[in-house]
Amino acid sequence: MPRHRITQADVAAMAGVSQATVSFVLNDSTPAGVRISEETRQRVLDAIRITGYSANPVAQRLAGGHNQILGVFTYEATFPRAGRDFYGPFLVGIEHAAEKLGIDILLFTSARVVDGRRRLTRDGWQRLGIADGCLLLGQHEDRGELQHLLDTNYPFVFIGKRGSDGGRLPYVGADYVTATARQVERLVTLGHERIGYVGPRGTDQPTLDRVDAYRATMKAHGLTVRFVELDDVAATAAEIVDQRLTAVVVAPENYPEELVDELERRDVRVPEDVSFLLLGQPHHGRPGGRRWSGFSIPREEMGARALVLLSRLVAADTGPTRSGRRATRGLTVPEDELHQLLECVDVDGETVAAPPARRRAAAPVRPAAPARPAPATAPGV
Amino acid sequence: MPRHRITQADVAAMAGVSQATVSFVLNDSTPAGVRISEETRQRVLDAIRITGYSANPVAQRLAGGHNQILGVFTYEATFPRAGRDFYGPFLVGIEHAAEKLGIDILLFTSARVVDGRRRLTRDGWQRLGIADGCLLLGQHEDRGELQHLLDTNYPFVFIGKRGSDGGRLPYVGADYVTATARQVERLVTLGHERIGYVGPRGTDQPTLDRVDAYRATMKAHGLTVRFVELDDVAATAAEIVDQRLTAVVVAPENYPEELVDELERRDVRVPEDVSFLLLGQPHHGRPGGRRWSGFSIPREEMGARALVLLSRLVAADTGPTRSGRRATRGLTVPEDELHQLLECVDVDGETVAAPPARRRAAAPVRPAAPARPAPATAPGV
DNA sequence: TCAACGCGATAATACGCATTATTACGCCGG
DNA sequence: CCGGCGTAATAATGCGTATTATCGCGTTGA
C-alpha cells in the first residue's frame, strides 16, 4: 500500500515513458499528430494493471475532462417529508441508472434557499461545475438562470416536461395529456356527464397539460367543462355538490384526502355519489390513505431515462476545454431523444364507479356501502 | 456575464494584489510569517463582493483543501425497492443536515458490485478522495478496507454501531440494547412468561445487541430464553406453536408479515394468542401492512447526526496537505461525540396484548376479535 | 546532399487554488 | 554605514491530469 495515491507519473516511470504518454493511452486518443506504438501501449497498459492505477477524478475535472459525476439539483426545498416522498422515486431511478453506468451522483444540497426554493445563484452555479452535467428537478421560473445554462453550454436535462419557455431544453417528462384524456374517457364510458376539473390554474406545464386534455376530451364528447378552483376545501366541496357533479378529475397536489373527508361530512359518498380520478400520485400521502383511482407517473423510469440522456449529452460534449471550443464530438444526440415523454400508467383504485342512477344529488339516506364497493353492487348500474 | 469563471486571479487583479493574497484573505489564515494589513484585506473583500467570486471546489480539492462535499457510501446494493426503503430515511436526515451546513452530498453509486454488495476497491477508494469525508452505511466485513481507511486518515463516520472490530471507528448508531430490553420488559409486565426470540443468529452488531439484551432481560426475570432461528416461515411458525410461546420479539429483517400469515393459517391469532414485538421497522413493508408494535430506529436523526459529526471531523483535519503532516488543528473532536448511540422510540401498534388466559395453546374456536383489539376486550385479562 | 516528411514520443503548459519560500522596504541599534 | 528585524506582501511551486507544442530520427524524393 503506497502512502500516496498512484498517479500517471508513477505508471509512466514504471513503463519507462512520459506522463503524457500514459494519459494518451488511457484516453485512447491521439490528438492530431501523436502516435503511440502498439508495443509501448501494451507496456503502459501492463504498468497500469500492475499498479492498480485509477484516475483522480478531481484532477481530471480540473484539467477539463470528465469525471463520471452527474449532479442532481432540486428546486423545491424538500424536507422534512413531502419533498422526499415526491422526489424519492426519481432518485431511485437515477441511482439505479447511475449504478449501471458507473457514475456517481452529486446532490446539490448546499444551494441557498430563497423564498422556500433553491436558487442557482452565482454561488450555486459555480458549484455545478464539479459535475459533468446536471439533472434539474422541479418547477422553477427564473429565465436568467436558464439562459445562463444555455450560454455556457453546460450539459443538463430537466425532469418534467418543459413547455413554451424552452423548446430547446432537453427534458424527460410524463405524458399528462394522454393520461388525463384517458381518465376522462373512462368516466364518459361509465356514463358520467357532469365531470368537473378540480385543481389550481397555474401556468406550470403539468397543469396546462391536464387542463388542455380535460377540455379537449370533454369537448370531443359534447360535454360542458366545469372548473372547480380550490380556495379552501370546504368551498370546493360545496361547489362540487352545487354543480351536481358525478365525477371529478383532481390534480393531486391539493390534498384530495381532505376534500373527500369534507364531502363525506356532507353525506356525499365516494365513489357512489362522486367518482374521483387522481391525475398523478397524491403528493401528501397519508399512511392509511385510500387507494385512489387515476394514473401514476413513472417517476423511477423518468429518473433513469433522464440520467441516461444526460450521460449521452456529456459524452457528446468535449467538456470545458481551455481552448474554449466545445465542439461536439461527432456524436450528436438525436432530436427525439432530447425530449422524451413517458406514458403514465392507469391505476385501478377504489374511487371510481358509475354515476348514481338519479341525476339529482341523491338523498342522504341510503344504505351504507361496503368499504370496497364492487361496481356490481352499486345500485342502478 | 464573463464567459469564463471568475478566479482568484481576477479578484486579485481588481484589488491590485497577488492571487496568493486573495487566497490568504479567503481562508482567513496567515501561515507563519505572512501578514495582511487590514486595509488590503478590505480591498480584497470588496473585490470579492463585486465580482461575486466563489471558489472552484475542484481546484480547491486538488490543491489539498476542503470542498464542502461529503460522500455517502452504501455497502448494500440497494435497488430496486428494499434498499431505498431502508436507506431513504437516513438520506433524508443526511440531506437535511447537509442543507443546513451548506454541504453537497456525493452518492458513491459507481462502486463495483461484487457478490451483491458494493466494494471499496482500489478504484472506489480513489474516488472517495473527491469528497472531504465519507459516511458509510450498512454492514460490511472487509477488514482490509477498514484498515486502509484508518491508515490514510481519511475522515469517515459509520452509520450503525461498530462493535469489537473497531472501537476506534467513529459511528452513530441506535441503542438496540436498551430498546430491546424495554420490549421484553413490556411483555413481562403484561404477564408473558414464554417469550421467544425470533431471528437469525448473525454476528452483525444489531443482532448481537438484540440477542444480548433479550438474554439479559429474561435472565433478570428468571425466565427461560427460547430462540427460534428462521429457516423457513413454516418451520418457524411450527416452532412457535410447539414451544407454546405467548409472545415473541422479532428481528425485522425476516418477513414478519409472512410469519404472521403463516400463524393465522394455523388458527393462531396475533396478538390474542401470540404477541409480536418488532425490534426495528420492517425492512420489507407491504403497502397495507399491519401496524407493528415494537420500536423504531431514529434513522433520520442518525443520518443528520452522522453528517454533523463527519463535518466536525473534517474541520479538525487539515486535509491531505502535500507536506504530509495531517496535524489536527487543535480542534479535536471529543471522544463522546465519536461514538453516539441514539435512543429508539417505542411504537404502539396492534400486535401486542396480554397472554391468553389458559397456558396451553387455546382452542382454535374462539370468537373473532375486532380488527384493532382494545386490550380490555381481550378475554381473561 | 539536403529539405521534407512521417513516426514516436516527450516537454511544457494550463486548470484554480493552497502553501512555502522569498523579496522589498523601512526602521533601529551599534 | 551596516546588519538585523519586523512588516506586508509577492513569486514560485505543487496537486494530477489533458492538451498543445516541440523534438529527434530515420527514410525518401529531388
Structure explained in plain terms:
The structure is a homodimer of 381-residue chains. By secondary structure, chain A is an alpha/beta fold. Chain A contains 13 helices and 14 strands. Chain A folds into three domains: 8-55, 434 Repressor (Amino-terminal Domain) (Orthogonal Bundle); 69-174 and 298-342, Response regulator (Rossmann fold); 176-296 and 346-377, Response regulator (Rossmann fold, 3-Layer(aba) Sandwich), CATH 3.40.50.2300. In chain A, 38% of the residues lie in helices and 14% in strands. Chain A has a six-stranded parallel β-sheet. Chain A has a six-stranded mixed β-sheet with strand order 9-8-10-11-12-14, sandwiched between helices. In chain A, a hairpin with a 2-residue loop joins strand 3 (113-114) and strand 4 (117-118). The interface between A and B is large, with 49 and 48 residues. Strand 2 of chain A pairs antiparallel with strand 2 (104-107) of chain B. The first copy, chain A, binds a DNA duplex (30 and 30 nucleotides) through residues 5, 7-9, 17-24, 26-27, 29, 31-37, 40, 55-56, 58-65, 319-323.
